[in-house]
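I am still getting used to backbone structure tokens and would like to learn alongside you. Please make up or recall a protein chain and show it to me in full. Would you write everything just below, so we can both look at the same thing?
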Amino acid sequence: MKKISSISLRKMWIEFYLDKDHKEIGSASVIPENDPTVLFTTAGMHPLVPYLMGQKHPQGTRLVNAQKCIRTGDIDEVGDDSHCTFFEMLGNWSLGDYFKKEQIAWSFEFLTSEKYLGIPLKNLAISVFAGDKNASKDEESAKLWIEQGIPKDRIFYLSKEHNWWGPAGQTGPCGPDTEMFFVKDIVDCKKGCDPSCNCGKYLEIWNDVFMQYNKNNEGKFETLAQKNVDTGMGLERTLCVLQGKKSVYETDIFVPIIKKIEEISGQKHGENSEKTKAIRIIADHIRTSVHMIGDIKGITPSNTDQGYVLRRLLRRAIRYANQLNMPKNSIVEVAKTVINTYKDIYKEIGQNQDKILNEIAIEEDRFEKTIKGGLKEFDKLKHYLVGDTISGKAAFKLYDTYGFPLEMTIELAKEHTLKVDVDSFNKCFIEHQAKSSAGSIQKFKGGLADNTAVVTRLHTATHLLHSALKKVLGDDVNQKGSNITEERLRFDFSFNRPMTADEIKKTEDIVNEAIKKDIKIECIEIELGKAKEMGAIGLFGDKYGEKVKVYKIEGYSLEMCGGPHTEKTGELGVFKIVKEQSSSSGVRRIKGVLN
């Protein structure tokens, strides 16, 4: 098995699929474009949903890339051997082209060939879908793996919970997947242990999804006319295997970041479990924060949506830095190391270095003030306390409102011979998580695949709004993000002051003028360079590769985009801005509706 660096693995992956007639597409932003269902890009397939559903991709039917991803659902697990909030997903796609036979053969070749990863056959195990009342057992994939040389006793049939993808919403494309695992020689478990076991024997490194069904409104699974392949190999986990490391934090991606934290803190990674966890959390959270702020649609800390997640990550990193007695501005120094690690891979990280470092420093100052406010609140609480126990509700208020971690409240309580009702705090925390989850679930209303007529109209309106804002406020205005539900559109744009009532009215008038003219919307497929020469706007064009789709609304808008759009502007109705407000530093937010 080869000892491959992170740079070599990315390059090897792309070149392997280029040899299989794929086209490389760049990584999309970590902030989803016009997708109300998720806060962040969590997989390589998210930016490709319209094409997985049948739209023609400018680069064709075979695609490959390395995609930046962020997942924060397992934030409490960060610090163990494998969990990260930021990761890179190596992916390839077939949009109605090849299917199981080709993909399984290529997966086996890439994993086992000495030219590529060279993983011994004895260290590979496979899982496939066991079947249920809605879809049949995936005997086809199992047979194809056996033909490649995988022994029958290392092919496991698992339930839909483990070997099924989608649909992303209530309806849409879905299908069985087959997962590839590295089998560790050193882990023993009960007889009959399989990849669904949490013992650590099986480490998932690759997943091939076969989208062959469509779940309809009646809950029935129909065979798709366009069958797709969507794969994902986690860069960090695969490196862990290839480099013979126990933890992803010991791979070459993390080594310089960990060393910088060791240098500043005087602590050694691996010597003490609690301090090792703190070092890993700082490394992970600062790495993710750098990619959030430095992204092409970079965000800043705030109290809503993506900005809130960023603020939580930074403050969590600061808390753990304090535990290690790291001096003020230490996390800025860690961020510099992260930037140096990625600036040649993702150019935007180097280009936005000053912004990244400035925002992190500002947030550290803000958090210091917050902590001071929390200390004042604790003193008030102590003064009016009846008995010797701080209630869980009070402790949770310190956590939720002032950013006080529970352990800090417990330490302060001990200093004053007080106790904290930890069980009650945990109940409050669970209730808070349940409410947050409910809010997140609400974001999935309609699902990724739900390009309804209303959503399509609102998406088209964002093009007109973007153009109108440039005319009213100036050409420096650029889209920073959008979020569309069936009720409204939300559009974030770069601007450093509130809009006046007159500017809001002028913007509405321009959009409605275009709607009244009932202009035909043209879609042009063109090379990226020529699209830019035409004056097409869009910060997201590079992700498409050589060719892009440009949507033209004559006299109003010329924008690179992936869709969906109406045929004519007259289908939109009447546009109204219902709110204009701050989103974050230097970014304003408009909420608009179509009546």
User: Anything to note?
Assistant: The chain has 17 helices and 18 strands. The first strand starts at residue 23 and ends at 24.
